[in-house]
Specification:
single chain; Serine Threonine Protein Phosphatase 5, Tetratricopeptide repeat; 33 helices; mainly alpha
Length: about 575
């Protein structure tokens, strides 16, 4: 906390590199947010690193010893035990060599053994038995029964843990399954089929959930353990019990492409169209990850291909976005709505075009997808393809009848967007397809206005070559030549003048290109305009000639040129 107090947790591993000093370790742990996981060596002033197998909290072993040595029936709470260990854990007056902080490293128990035994000693019945069973037998727990639980019997065999290092839980596992983890969760996570079978024989709660809602069945499906899934289902596991995000076991099998487990779950009553909190179904996940095997299984179980998630995406939207053509074919063949719209009105074709998924686009168009569907901003697939410079897709859309002149909400046609982005090949393609070169967009700007304003000199040249009008005026009377002069694009001015742009054109405020050149102080462009016949005595709306503007803006060289 703010006072640098450290809370020790007894349920976790901490990787401690031998070369790390205490200060480095604490700083690194603070940055990772794992400061609560501190190895006991940090408090014992010991420099010996225990290694990944035995890097456990020795207080866990202390608890086990304290609890094992207590008289039968005098149970202690975890809080009381924490206080007791904190008070006695590093005291030098405890000379008993059996205490864990004096145990030889190689003889120390592994984490799982200490954790399970400690948990059972604190809650000897309720941890592993359902509440109704716990109440019945809690009064019958005697010294001999507890001794038998420690010395033999099925329960001990179930919870007797292996020495294999691969069974030591990782930091990630502990973070995922932290809080309310039972021995059943843990054994399922380790894939211990026989141990799970023995534990289930003691009538444990097969649907117990961790703090984040994970059941043993959810863990088994995540790890793709069909044998464990079958075992849990045979013992009554709920195939539809979801985690805190609404993910059911079938969601995880679809995410993993595990059709074997998915079939097992469906046979045991799993809902084929279950939706998690954001509306995603197993079909969405199979489409996202290109698992045709799972998708075909879901189709055979009458999964709805048109269910929408929170933003309105169907499985076909997802498959089209990722370009999974086999899933696109499967979905379109099973009655998926080709022109289904998201909340922003985008169709699967919009998404495939945006991502450049040519094969998916081709199949959607062949199947009858509308090439002129408009999204909320008025963009058709051709608008998107033109703006992104996707030549082959533009060509494909035009072949299937996409309109050249549809305006967006702001009035832009595909040619406007291609000119604005500088995509020369697409400008040629659209012009050859007879797109309107003078189509008025927002404020009556033509594609040539956009190119001149944004300094796209090559685009200006191409549009002029294709026949664009160099004297088209927008709503304030500005021509492309005005905009090119204002931009300071010498080549664009030259191209426009070569194609007979009107050097005398004036805006509604009376401004000519020469006024703008004098105001900007662009001597090169002004000379070109004068050479083209620009009149220098014309007054703008404020009553200023180009010379007066140059003087007001202190463009001395321009003023000298105009006076001469």
């Amino acid at each position: 906390d703010d006072h640098l107090h450290i809370r020790i947790s007894d349920f976790g591993l901490s990787k401690w590199m031998e070369q790390s000093t205490r200060t480095q370790y604490i700083e690194r742990s603070a940055l990772r947010g794992t400061l609560s996981y501190m190895p006991p060596e940090m408090f014992l002033q010991s420099n010996m690193a225990p290694g990944p197998k035995y890097d456990v909290y020795r207080t866990s072993h202390t608890k086990e010893i304290i609890l094992s040595s207590r008289r039968s029936g005098t149970l202690v709470s975890l809080t009381q035990l924490e206080v007791g260990v904190a008070r006695r854990g590093v005291s030098e007056d405890l000379g008993d060599e059996s205490y864990p902080w004096r145990t030889v490293l190689g003889r120390r128990k592994e984490w799982r053994t200490a954790w399970t035994r400690t948990a059972l000693l604190i809650h000897p019945v309720s941890l592993v038995l359902p509440p109704q069973v716990s109440e019945e037998v809690s009064q019958e727990l005697t010294d001999s029964a507890r001794s038998q639980a420690e010395s033999g019997g099925d329960l001990k065999r179930v919870l007797q843990l292996s020495d294999s290092e691969s069974l030591v839980p990782s930091d990630e596992e502990l973070r995922i399954y932290e809080n309310k983890v039972t021995p059943l969760h843990f054994l399922v996570a380790q894939g211990s089929v026989e141990q799970v079978r023995l534990l289930l024989a003691h009538e444990v709660d097969v649907d117990c959930q961790t703090a984040c809602g994970y059941t043993p069945l959810l863990i088994a499906t995540q790890d793709q353990q069909p044998e464990l899934c079958a075992l849990l289902l045979d013992h009554g596991a709920d195939a539809n019990l979801a985690d805190e995000d609404g993910w059911t076991p079938l969601h995880f099998t679809a995410q993993n492409g595990d059709d074997r487990t998915a079939r097992l779950l469906l046979d045991r009553g799993a809902r084929v169209d279950a939706q998690e909190h954001e509306g995603w179904t197993p079909f969405h996940l199979a489409a996202q990850n290109n698992f045709e095997n799972v998708a075909r299984l879901l189709v055979s179980r009458q999964a709805d291909p048109n269910l929408r998630e929170a933003e309105g995406k169907t499985p076909l939207h997802v498959a089209a976005y990722f370009g999974h053509v086999t899933l696109v074919k499967l979905l379109t063949g099973q009655g998926a709505e080709l022109d289904a719209q998201q909340r922003n009105l985008r169709t699967p074709l919009h998404l495939a075009v945006e991502r450049g998924k040519v094969r998916a686009i081709q199949h959607l168009l062949k199947s009858g997808a509308a090439p002129d569907a408009l999204d909320r901003d008025g963009y058709s697939p051709l608008h998107t393809a033109a703006a992104r410079g996707r030549y082959l897709i533009c060509k494909m859309l035009l072949r299937y009848g996409a309109s050249l002149e549809l305006p967006t909400q702001q009035g832009w046609t595909p040619l406007h967007l291609a000119a604005y982005k500088g995509h020369l090949e697409i400008i040629h393609l659209l012009a050859e397809s007879h797109a309107d070169l003078g189509a008025p967009g927002s404020m009556n700007w033509t594609p040539l206005h956009l190119a001149a304003r944004h300094g796209e000199e090559e685009v200006v040249a191409v549009l002029l070559q294709c026949g664009a009008d160099p004297n088209a005026a927008e709503q304030s009377g500005w021509t492309p030549l005005h905009l090119a002069v204002q931009r300071g694009s010498f080549l664009s001015v030259t191209h426009l003048l070569e194609h007979h742009a009107d050097v005398h054109a004036h805006s509604k405020g009376g401004w000519t290109p020469a006024h703008l050149a004098a105001l900007k102080g662009n001597m090169a462009i002004l000379k070109v305009l004068v050479r083209a016949g620009a009149q220098l005595d014309v007054q703008a709306g404020e009553g200023c000639t180009p010379l007066q503007l140059a003087l007001r803006s202190q463009k001395q060289s321009v003023a000298a040129f105009l006076e001469g």
